[in-house]
Amino acid sequence: MRDSSKQDNRPAFQFYYKDYIFDLQGLCSLGAIGLWTLMLCRMWASPKRGMLLQANGSKFSSKTLAKLTGEEVEVIEKYIKELEGLRTFDYVDGVITCRRMYKEWDIEQKRKESGRLGGLGISKDESKIISKIKQTAEEEEEVLVSNISIKKNKEKLFNKIWLKYPNKDGKKEALNHFVASINSKDDWEKIKIALPNYLHSDRVKNGYIKNGSTWFNNWKDWVDFKGVKNFIEPLPEPKPENPEEKAKREKQKKEESEARYQEMIEGFRKQPLQQLKNAVAMVRKATKTPPPQIMLDIIKEKEKNGGER
């Protein structure tokens, strides 16, 4: 599943008042309740909805929250301890997180990914395999970066992030700097924020990219870099295509599309009549548009043949 780098543009979100009343009323101070309300709003605008993250993916510190509220840092930390004691929130990767909001966002992302793969013509089985591969890679990273084993896995972690760095000069020195500066899971999470910040900065866009040894020696300068707003990964430049290649590609695309269409029709024909009727009703209700004509034709066919064919 890909993480979204865009903030949610919807101007409002659902507010579960019963959660709010039962979790907080009469149990904590008015100041803590006010802070939690602010945090909920910030979590909604987070790159990972439900997690208390700034636009560049870095955590909100007590100091930043103090600036936003006009309170002292000590007061903010007191309120956070108060909320934590009531289990008002969870920590996900060390970040304050609203359980319900994060869970709903996670489900939404999985559905989007599922739809994206379907739009690419990837079957359900293939989609499951892709998801399993991604899950395996994520689990492998979790094992590599646990504080217990990170010291013996530094070279493997370096190779993972080195693949993403465009200037390959100075690999040996870059590895030495990485080994010296990455000593915990928190360091690993920070360098994963720092690299995209650097790669999407104006200086890199203008063609200046430090060699590997230089950047990995100073990567911490880019963790809280403010010059990057929620970036969208640019699409790669299309390669020039000659007319013969284009005609061949379009023919192949048409054949694949036709094969998928025929497979879809076959699937409709195998469905029981009532299931097809239910599907047509749901399409009409959900989209306010007529269903595909082929579905209506198959329903007529089945009705004519006494329900099944």
Which secondary structure elements does this structure contain, and how are they paired or packed?
Blueprint: H1 17-24, H2 30-44, H3 62-69, H4 73-85, E1 90-92, E2 95-97, H5 99-119, H6 124-145, H7 154-162, H8 171-181, H9 185-199, H10 202-205, H11 212-217, H12 243-270, H13 273-287, H14 293-304
Antiparallel strand pairs: 1-2
The overall average pLDDT, rounded, is 75
Instruction: Please summarize the sheet with the most strands.
Output: 2 strands, antiparallel
Sheet with the most strands: spatial strand order:
1-2
Question: How many runs of DSSP E, i.e. beta strands?
Answer: 2
Give the overall form.
Answer: flat
Structural class: mainly alpha
In DSSP terms (H or I, runs of 4 or more residues), the helix count works out at: 14
How would you characterize this protein structure?
With 309 residues, the chain is mainly α. It has three domains: 17-105, Arc Repressor Mutant, subunit A (Orthogonal Bundle); 123-222, no CATH class; 243-304, no CATH class. It has helices spanning 17-24, 30-44, 62-69, 73-85, 99-119, 124-145, 154-162, 171-181, 185-199, 202-205, 212-217, 243-270, 273-287, 293-304; strands at residues 90-92, 95-97. A two-stranded antiparallel sheet has the order 1-2. β1 and β2 form a beta hairpin. α7 (154-162) crosses α8. The longest helix has 28 residues, at 243-270. It is flat and about 75 Å long. The two termini are 41 Å apart. The model is unreliable at 1-7 and 228-236 (pLDDT under 50).
